[in-house]
Amino acid sequence: MLKERFLKYVQVYTTSSEESTTSPSTHRQFDLAHILRDELLDLGLEDVKVSDHCIVTGSLPGSSKESLGLIAHMDTSPDFSGQGIKPQIIENYDGGPIHLKGADLTMDPKDFPDLKDLVGKTVITSDGTTLLGADDKAGVAAIMEVLAYYVAHPDIPRPSLKVAFTPDEEVGRGTENFDVQDFACDYALTVDGGGLGEFSIENFNAASATVTIQGLNIHPGSAKDKMVNALDIATDFHQALPVAQRPQHTEGREGFIHLHTFSGSIEEAQLNYIIRDFDPDLFQEKKDLIQKLGDFMAEKHHTQIQVDIKDSYYNMKEKLDKVDFLIQEVLKAMEENSVPVRLEPIRGGTDGAMLSYKGLPCPNLFTGGHHFHGRYECIALEDLQKAVDVLISLVASLGQRK
């Protein structure tokens, strides 16, 4: 049933949009929301609803006073097409190159060495013309399987289970309309991680920076000592930032400053950056650097430069201290299911990071997926099943808490 659920969900078109100002950013996300609402009702959950902002919630009452939230997001990344997904299923993967038939491309273990961990398993990919959508429909499918299990096993002691499926996580807006008080949950997990055993209790601090440079356009034939070319200044600005802090040169716990769009003309140019770091002091240093560089370049080029910096989310680690027991219970559940633990900081963000700062502590559990946000995305069905098994064990263990 897990495979069937997953394949059903990934074929629903739910790509979110960076440009949209509506909530949800794309109305098509309601298509999956309504499917999930109906499935939750069929399972017999209580208080099932889809909000005006496309957040699906429901609850399965338990035998203890505590409640555990299980959260995943429905949207897929706008970085690559999520329309018309055609899954490919490779049984008993032999470790060789995988042919993506739709795009006539190959996913080669030489380029993707983590494929060696999937040998002998059932690997699911797209046909190469779209992403797969395991991020995060694998998490959605895992949560639905856990709910179905506990509906079928009502005699097993458990906390109340609260479920939430959110929109727009991929564009950083998954929790902007999430009412933590209404959700009424003691602690939660997002099921939105990567490969087998990945468990994350910290993530980047994140901000965005918009640098707007004013120029002065004069006919190039008479521009001497008059023209101020905003594009030249924008290039100068970007080249002045440390090359070593670009994302292609960082890994592990290293932060970065990433230019993701550059647009403009002689009259005006705009640079859009994202800023990331695990360490709050280094995070602030990066923001200060961009602000000071804007002031310096404005003086150097005798023009106006506006720098707008906005924090997006923060490292959830400091908010998880009060639920150390939950972290230990997850680790125990992984050990019980022979899952090797990989405590890895998230080089990104999740809904859980934002929810942790709204008062709902929320670490992040693996789904088994790989190579998110592109045509080479894939997942091993057995690893997704392990996520289900870990969650089932976790719920049973939490049901024993006094």
UniProtKB/TrEMBL annotation:
GO terms for molecular function: metallopeptidase activity; tripeptide aminopeptidase activity; zinc ion binding. It holds the Pfam family M20_dimer. Keywords: Aminopeptidase, Hydrolase, Metal-binding, Metalloprotease, Protease, Zinc. SUPFAM superfamilies: Bacterial exopeptidase dimerisation domain, Zn-dependent exopeptidases. It is an enzyme of class 3 (hydrolase). InterPro entries: ArgE/DapE_CS, Bact_exopeptidase_dim_dom, Peptidase_M20, Peptidase_M20_dimer, Peptidase_M20B. One of its GO terms (biological process) is peptide metabolic process. CDD domains: M20_peptT. One of its GO terms (cellular component) is cytosol. The keyword Lyase does not apply. Zn(2+) 1 binds at residues 73, 135, 192. PROSITE patterns: ARGE_DAPE_CPG2_1 (PS00758), ARGE_DAPE_CPG2_2 (PS00759). Binds 2 Zn(2+) ions per subunit. Its cofactor is Zn(2+). Zn(2+) 2 binds at residues 135, 170, 373. It catalyses: Release of the N-terminal residue from a tripeptide. Belongs to the peptidase M20B family. This is Peptidase T. It comes from Urinicoccus massiliensis. The lineage of its organism: Bacteria, Bacillati, Bacillota, Tissierellia, Tissierellales. The gene is pepT.
